[in-house]
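Quick one:
INPUT:
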């Protein structure tokens, strides 16, 4: 199908919105609430206004995200009238948004700031008053409704996660995104990833981390979780330098870390423990599979939402560091320091691990990025350094690229993978174990995993092992990794 945008002929698919067609053809239309990765187009911010002229009709100004393209339609994205309307809508948002940008966790990645710049509004912005709310903490997350722009992305994401802990409590000017019930929150942090402005963010532990790193009375070890490497590559992607992990190790030592340890083998320890459980289950010819519980967000979801037999779930929980020889006493003994002076900082994209008593501070990928910026450090100027050696067993396997342990579990059993099929949120893996064919599933949806658990509780599961990771894309895409809005807002 054909239409005209800003005087140029373009093609589009039937049912495609003006916004989607414009982006596909390289035309910029400012937007805020629309979020293509979630197919989220509520049409509430009204920033994406354009002027369109249908084949049989007069010109009119419409929101591009919810207006479908028509054959022969003419669209203008930046006339003086359109720009004036866009600025008016942005001013209404800014008039209620507290602009403490220097202290905001979205500093450098805020879509409202980008919108303000795109519309040339620096000189036009009114003094914001906000809604005089108080930021509230809920586990690893902090909600500040004085920054909320009512885009409803968090509500959509929470519903897709199967938790439905967030909802909009009213409509119109007084609309406010609230937590429906704290007990429903699984602490995955995906709401923080899609928030465009920092109204929902993971709790910042940079100050605590800096205090530990600068203390002369403690021995501070920084531990990289198995999925931290991939998440940090995304956080520092604009630098495009080689050996990113080694450069970050050097920066952490410059900040005062006494040891920096790669915790990749902790996933192998988890896989060994789970494979032992599975081997026992197979020896008993049990009809029910084992469901992993290593992902803390999935474990929280299962505990709160599933009425399933207790033996359905593995006893192995996150974090796996203490079980794999990375406990506080083990590290103190290895480095020859007193246990009471040992301090542990975990670097992990998993928001659900914040507040874990095994660690004195947990830094997300975003948090470490902010900490290094505030300290004036950039990896591209640091010479790569190696992780500190730690006597981890050589036989332990690493996690997969998405943080999964299924392949490591199968290797530990001595099974040989013969087929892998990925469909939607499930990866099915078939493996040969002697004369037996094991079917396993890797699931990236709590809601879908709940269906598989219900099937298993009835004794109808085709699988021997089911691993669930709550965050789509796996652990490197956890709630503390680079935001979807930063990586995929133009998808």
């Amino acid at each position: 199908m054909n239409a005209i945008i800003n005087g140029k002929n373009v093609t589009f698919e039937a049912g495609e919105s003006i916004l989607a067609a414009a982006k596909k053809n390289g035309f910029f239309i400012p937007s805020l609430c629309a979020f293509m990765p979630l197919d989220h187009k509520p049409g509430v911010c009204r920033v994406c206004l354009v002027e369109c002229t249908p084949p049989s009709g007069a010109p009119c100004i419409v929101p591009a995200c919810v207006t479908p393209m028509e054959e022969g339609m003419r669209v203008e994205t930046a006339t003086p009238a359109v720009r004036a309307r866009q600025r008016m809508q942005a001013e209404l948002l800014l008039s209620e948004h507290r602009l403490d940008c220097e202290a905001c966790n979205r500093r450098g990645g805020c879509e409202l700031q980008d919108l303000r710049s795109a519309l040339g509004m620096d000189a036009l912005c009114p003094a914001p008053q906000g809604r005089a709310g108080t930021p509230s903490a809920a586990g690893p997350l902090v909600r500040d409704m004085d920054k909320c722009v009512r885009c409803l992305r968090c509500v959509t994401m929470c519903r897709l996660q199967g938790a439905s802990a967030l909802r909009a409590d009213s409509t119109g000017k007084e609309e406010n995104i609230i937590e429906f019930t704290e007990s429903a929150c699984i602490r995955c942090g995906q709401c923080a990833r899609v928030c465009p402005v920092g109204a929902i963010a993971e709790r910042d532990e940079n100050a605590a981390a800096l205090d530990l790193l600068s203390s002369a009375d403690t021995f501070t070890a920084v531990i990289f979780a198995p999925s931290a490497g991939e998440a940090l590559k995304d956080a520092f992607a604009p630098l495009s330098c080689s050996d990113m992990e080694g450069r970050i190790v050097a920066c952490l030592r410059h900040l005062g870390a006494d040891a920096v340890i790669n915790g990749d083998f902790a996933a192998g320890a988890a896989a060994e423990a789970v494979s032992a459980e599975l081997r026992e289950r197979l020896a008993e010819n049990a009809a029910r599979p084992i469901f992993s519980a290593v992902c803390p967000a999935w474990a929280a979801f299962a505990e709160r939402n599933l009425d399933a037999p207790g033996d359905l779930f593995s006893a192995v929980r996150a974090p796996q560091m203490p079980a794999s020889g990375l406990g506080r006493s083990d590290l103190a003994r290895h480095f020859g320091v007193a246990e009471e002076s040992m301090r542990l900082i975990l670097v992990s994209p998993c928001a659900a691990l914040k507040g874990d008593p095994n660690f004195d501070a947990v830094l997300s990928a975003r948090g470490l990025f902010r900490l290094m910026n505030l300290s004036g450090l950039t990896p591209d100027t640091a010479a790569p350094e190696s992780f500190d050696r730690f006597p981890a067993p050589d036989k332990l396997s690493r996690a997969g690229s998405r943080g999964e342990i299924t392949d490591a579990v199968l290797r530990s059993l001595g099974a040989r993978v013969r087929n892998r099929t990925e469909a939607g949120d499930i990866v099915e893996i078939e493996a040969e174990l002697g004369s037996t064919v094991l079917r396993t599933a890797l699931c990236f949806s709590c809601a879908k995993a709940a269906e598989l658990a219900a099937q298993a509780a009835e004794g109808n599961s085709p699988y021997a092992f089911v691993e669930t990771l709550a965050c789509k894309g796996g652990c490197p895409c956890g709630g503390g990794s680079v935001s979807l809005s930063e990586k995929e807002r133009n998808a």
